[in-house]
Design goal:
By secondary structure, the protein is α/β, with parallel strands linked by helices. It has two domains: 4-17 and 247-376, Lyase, Ornithine Decarboxylase, Chain A, domain 1; 23-234, Alanine racemase (TIM Barrel). Helix 10 (347-354) packs across helix 11 (358-367). It has helices at residues 23-36, 46-50, 54-62, 74-82, 100-105, 115-123, 145-160, 182-200, 213-218, 347-354, 358-367, 379-382; strands spanning 18-22, 40-44, 68-71, 89-91, 108-112, 128-133, 164-170, 207-211, 226-229, 248-253, 256-260, 265-266, 272-273, 278-283, 300-303, 306-311, 319-324, 333-337, 372-376. The protein is elongated, with a radius of gyration of 24 Å. The strands form three sheets. It has a nine-stranded mixed beta sheet. Helix 7 links the parallel strand 6 and strand 7 (164-170). The structure holds pyridoxal-5'-phosphate. Residues 44, 46, 92, 172, 212-214, 228-232, 238 line the site of pyridoxal-5'-phosphate (PLP). The active site is at residues 46, 268.
């Protein structure tokens, strides 16, 4: 095996793996979604803003047309309040013994999916603002239809007693990424029935929301008074109909480059063997950094302006790139993922290679603790504070 042909670059030219978050992309995506939504726009910043930074994404979205924030857990909602965000916030998935009094005292709206949750919220001091949550047909979160009328009646009684204010009714569509699926019409119909049932119980919820990103982009009949969008903010369109802009870029330096002969086994299990003499670059990012291991054998990266295959398995901390005949310098930047402008792979490409959805790719990268992070495009936010 011959030695590397790489030369050592100037100091400071390269650093370690870097995850960049482009808030200008989030801003542009928010504008587009706000234009498409018939009603208000709730920016869903759960899971740390889909890995992009909940507070950064929230501030950016609020500066570009969103007026509400949405999260899963109360802890996520309280973190937004602690960061100084004052926009309306809704938290929709909590255990029955959650700290409802913290929600009330922090001005966080909560979703109520059943009588037990309602009783717990009512028992908390103060007057909670609640959104009754109906299951629109995916047997996941939200009240089962058989329990809905009783929930509405009980919520109305509590409202009359001044214990809660029912400000909203929410549902969620299970198949909106496939606009032609009949499941969407059934979901819309069930939601309309749920609203009618709430009305008949004497409730007058101002905020009625069913659509997430896909339905906001494809199905105006689902919009009602508000859309809850998360994926779209960070450039993911589950419906595949609209060009949104990816906001993450993952780069890393080549930490070694070597020339190898044909027949060289690469990586764990020797899954790959070089079929010709070639150059291999080692890149210090792996599945512990959110790079899907299931993409082994299929993934590509961008090096020196060209797409090159990853070879061998994705390891915990590293991957190997087949450079072919043209080696690169040590420290040369390898782009593993980005918006696609220069031909680099996107989150959608990684999702295809690993049999998942881009949501899982970006939340995985975003949760990685070893990646250095840099946020760009926030200049317009400074004046807003
Ligand atoms: C995650 C989530 C959303 C946002 O969905 P996107 O497809 O990411 O826009 C909206 N509503 C609920 C209930 C959710 O769990």
């Amino acid at each position: 095996m011959s030695a590397t042909c790489a030369s050592v670059p100037l100091a400071g030219v390269s650093s370690g793996p870097l995850l960049q978050v482009d808030l200008a992309a989030v801003g542009a995506n928010t504008r587009l979604l706000a234009d498409r939504a018939a009603g208000d726009l709730m920016a869903v910043v759960k899971a740390d803003g889909f890995g992009h930074g909940a507070v950064d994404v929230a501030r950016t979205a609020l500066a570009h047309g969103a007026t509400w924030l949405g999260v899963t857990s109360l802890a996520e909602a309280l973190a937004l309040r602690a960061a100084g965000l004052r926009a309306p916030v809704l938290s929709w998935l909590n255990p029955v013994d959650a700290d409802w009094s913290a929600a009330v005292s922090s001005g966080v709206d909560v979703a109520v999916p059943g009588l037990e949750h309602l009783a717990a919220v009512v028992a908390a001091p103060g007057r909670a603002r609640v959104h009754l949550h109906v299951d629109a047909g995916m047997a996941r979160d939200g009240a089962a239809p058989a329990t809905w009328a009783a929930l509405c009646a009980a919520a109305r009684r509590s409202e009359r007693q001044g214990r809660v204010e029912v400000v909203g009714v929410m549902g969620h569509l299970g198949c909106a990424d496939d606009p032609g699926d009949a499941c969407n019409e059934r979901g819309r119909t069930r939601f309309a029935w749920a609203l009618e049932t709430a009305r008949a119980a004497g409730l007058r919820p101002r905020h009625r929301h069913l659509a997430a990103t896909a339905a906001t982009l494809t199905d105006p009949r689902s919009h009602h008074t508000m859309s809850r969008v998360g994926a779209g903010l960070v450039g993911i369109d589950p419906s595949g109909t609209t060009a949104l802009r990816g906001a993450l870029t993952l780069t890393a330096p080549a930490v070694s480059v070597r020339r190898v002969p044909a027949g060289t086994p690469v990586g764990y299990g020797h899954d790959h063997r070089t079929d010709r003499p070639t150059h291999l670059a080692l890149v210090p990012v792996g599945y512990a950094d959110g790079l899907p291991r299931a993409a082994s054998g299929r993934a590509e990266v961008l090096v020196a302006g060209r797409r090159r295959p990853l070879v061998g398995r994705v390891s915990m901390d590293q991957v190997v790139v087949d450079l072919g005949e043209r080696p690169v310098d040590l420290g040369a930047t390898v782009t593993l993922l980005g918006p696609g402008d220069a031909g680099e792979p996107t989150a959608a490409d990684w999702a295809d290679w690993s049999g998942t959805i881009p949501h899982e790719v970006v939340t995985g990268l975003g949760a990685a603790t070893r990646l250095q992070r840099r946020t760009t495009g926030a200049a317009h936010l400074r004046s807003l504070a």
